[in-house]
Design a protein that fits this description.
Blueprint (H helix, E strand, L loop, with lengths): L1 H18 L23 E7 L5 E8 L5 E5 L4 E8 L5 E3 L7 H5 L7 E3 L5 E2 L3 E4 L2 E4 L8 E2 L12 E7 L2 E10 L10 E9 L4 E10 L3 E2 L3 E3 L14 E4 L1 E5 L12 E2 L11 E2 L9 H6 L3 E6 L7 E7 L6 E6 L3 E5 L23 E5 L14 E2 L5 E8 L6
The structure holds alpha-D-galactopyranose (GLA).
């Protein structure tokens, strides 16, 4: 920017000189001024090849502040997010792998786009208009995160698009009628855009040719310190109620007030402050793995949660149009997954804030509906923003 200003000044001086009839006018005409700096483009590189021989790429989104997000079209997966700490030092704040191979084996949905249905559907079945649909039971008796080959395990088409807000990466996937047991051909797009305020915008759209259910989310695991566990991260969730679960982590259907429970994050509280207290809900999940009922008006874009890491000063603010957020404190991590830099991810190495409709909604008519009909467009937005770090 500064350089092009200097060039423009130089050119203006030369034009003035020409106008004044000085000797300079005899010189070669000046080179045209460089075109104004464009917003950074999205770079892409090969990331690997699937066992079926399909090549996949990794796309790098950068912004004017040097923040960087990498996304692969395998599973619509966020591979890394580099944001500054209070000293301006960039650090990677999501769990994952250094190479593509890691994403093919044994990943607990690190960074993935989850679909057709984020979280659980009880007993892997639901009914629409009197027809019962049977899904894979890939989590005990229940269906989890879209089944055996959910959207996290497929190759998406990818293109970069110029939006009014700047360049975005648009991933596309056509989920065929009957895939993983779900009805209807579902055409899905997920758009990733990194703005100049250090916020990653994820926009999901979907249409169907047959009545179906859909609930898309992103399953990034954050650790704002970039190391250790997340128990000292301070969390605030804008929710007065949550959906308690049974021992299979299926909602009972009750919307329980958080007041007086370890689920009250209405004021900023360390994740680890109450995680070990005697509480049946925490025991069922081995920590937090619960859907919170967001207090904002349904369908509006509003803040769901805010997390700060006192050590690095980094802040994460999650906004969404969704009615719920699954706060998962990485309870199933047990050191067996070896991730970036050879690090064994131990219990609570990261947390997820999965914006969503409530788990098992297809079997709970009182929950906000996840039904999508032909002619309708599913559209949700979630923003992961990294405001100025705390000093
Ligand atoms: C979600 C679920 C958890 C677990 C993780 C992935 O957060 O609610 O129970 O399945 O995904 O391991």
């Amino acid at each position: 920017m500064r350089r092009s200003n200097i060039d423009r000044l130089g050119r203006a001086a030369l034009l003035l000189a020409i106008a004044a009839g000085t000797g300079i006018a005899c010189q070669q005409p000046p080179a045209p001024a460089p075109t104004p700096a464009k917003p950074p483009a999205i770079d892409h590189r090969p990331f690997g090849t699937t066992p079926d021989g399909v090549p996949v790429n990794v796309y790098t989104l950068t912004n004017a502040h040097g923040m960087e997000v990498r996304v692969t079209n395998y599973g619509g997966t966020v591979v890394s997010i580099k944001t500054p700490d209070r000293h301006g030092q960039l650090g990677d704040v999501v769990l994952g792998f250094d190479t593509f191979d890691g994403y093919l084996h044994n990943t607990p949905y690190f960074g993935a786009t989850v679909g057709r249905y984020g979280n659980r559907i009880a007993k892997g079945r639901f009914a629409l208009d009197g027809v019962t649909y049977k899904l894979a039971q890939n989590d005990g008796d229940n269906h989890l995160h879209g089944g055996l080959r959910g959207f996290d395990k497929v190759v998406w088409t990818a293109k970069t698009v110029d939006t009014v807000d700047g360049p975005a990466l648009e991933l596309g996937y056509l989920s065929k009628d009957g895939e993983e047991g779900y009805p209807g051909n579902l055409a899905v797009t997920v758009r990733f855009h990194l703005d100049d305020h250090n916020a990653l915008h994820i926009d999901y759209t979907a249409t169907t040719d047959k009545k179906t259910v859909v609930n898309l989310t992103n399953h990034s695991y954050f650790n704002l310190a970039g190391a250790g566990d997340i128990l000292s991260h301070v969390l605030e969730i804008e929710a007065d109620r949550f959906t308690p679960v049974d021992k299979g982590l299926i909602p009972t259907g009750v919307l329980q007030p958080v007041a007086g429970t370890p689920f009250d994050f209405r004021t900023p509280t360390a994740i680890g402050a109450r995680i070990d207290v005697k509480n049946q809900q925490l025991q069922y999940a081995g920590g937090y793995d619960h859907n919170f009922v967001l207090s904002k008006a349904p369908g509006t874009l509003g803040v769901a949660a805010r997390v700060t890491d006192p050590a690095s000063g980094r802040v994460l603010e999650v906004s969404t149009t969704e009615p719920g957020v699954q706060f998962y404190s990485g309870n199933f991590l047990d050191g067996t997954v070896i991730g970036k830099g050879g690090r064994a991810y131990q219990k609570h190495a990261g947390f997820a804030l999965e914006t969503q409709h409530f788990p098992d909604s297809p079997n709970h008519p009182a929950f906000p509906s996840t039904v999508l009909e032909p002619g309708q467009t599913y559209h949700t937005t979630t923003i992961y923003a990294f405001p100025t770090p705390q000093s």
